[in-house]
Design goal:
single chain, alpha/beta, TIM Barrel, eight-stranded parallel sheet, about 40% helix
Length: about 280
């Protein structure tokens, strides 16, 4: 089964859903649910417009794209993607694109598509050392400057490898400490944080307001594989109650593996969230 990390490697993208923050004063119901489109990557490659129409009918509202073999928007131009989102009552809130020689092109496309965020989904250079993570932090600060000039917010998305240690330091913490919080936001993938044996709430306490974006991804018990929300090891309701401390503004449902059709899993995910009180 192809995982997101396998996919990113195979396409060379990184050499290379979302939920509006609800009122937290009272017990809340989930609203404005959105999705990371990697969850339906094959469907998007076959029929982007038809797939997005199906997701809109399910009730997904906010969308995060992922770079693909057909480009940033699955064969659509930035303007076409923006118009399609408007026609379907959706918002293209964010997109995943690796930092490479085409970064400025990606930034310009994000601005044209009306995105608020542009997210780098893995390290631009590899190496599980403090020195490499410091270099990556410098790269992120520079990439974020280009985003800022275009009116787009830069963010970085973690997997589990970032929580390894080098010389006693957690490498993810190096990124948090060496990036400019005014320029570099973090998109926390909750599933990978849990797989790495870390507590998201610890990060919310130590680095409040650094995580305006989340990936809400449930993980199978004892495995590093994603599953339908509510069937794995994440306490989704508890995590949502931590949204304010983290600074979360939106989160994106993401599921990488399935036991049936991807769109059927997306229906199960949104049904679960619509019925959730937290």
């Amino acid at each position: 089964m192809t995982t997101r990390r396998d996919f990113l490697t195979s396409v060379g993208a990184l050499a290379t859903g979302v939920l509006a923050l609800p009122t937290l004063a009272h017990a809340a119901r989930v609203q404005d649910i959105g999705l990371q489109l990697y969850s339906v990557r094959d469907d998007m490659m076959r029929d982007a417009k038809g797939t997005l129409t199906s997701l809109a009918k399910m009730g997904y509202k906010e969308i995060e794209s992922a770079n693909s073999a057909k480009g940033y928007y699955y064969g659509l131009s930035p303007k076409e993607m923006k118009q399609l989102m408007q026609d379907l009552g959706m918002t293209l809130r964010s997109g995943h694109v690796g930092i490479d020689n085409n970064w400025q092109k990606a930034v310009d496309a994000a601005a044209e598509a009306g995105q608020q965020y542009l997210v780098c989904p893995s390290l631009p250079t590899q190496g599980q050392t403090v020195s490499n993570y410091e270099r990556c932090a410098d790269t992120f600060n520079k990439a974020a400057e280009a985003c800022k000039k275009a009116g787009v917010q830069f963010a970085y998305h973690n997997h589990d490898a970032e929580f390894a240690k080098d010389n006693g330091r957690v490498l993810y913490d190096v990124l948090l400490e060496k990036t400019d919080p005014r320029l570099v936001a973090m998109e926390m993938d909750l599933g990978w944080v849990v797989v790495a044996g870390q507590d998201p709430f610890s990060y919310f306490e130590r680095y409040p307001n650094r995580f305006p974006l989340w990936h809400l991804k449930d993980m199978k018990k004892g495995e590093a594989h994603s599953t339908v929300l509510g069937t794995g090891r994440l306490d989704v309701a508890k995590l949502l109650r931590g949204a304010k401390k983290s600074g979360m503004k939106y989160f994106f449902v993401e599921q990488e593996e399935y036991e049936g059709a991807p769109l059927a899993s997306m229906q199960r995910n949104i049904t679960y969230l619509k019925g959730l009180n937290y």
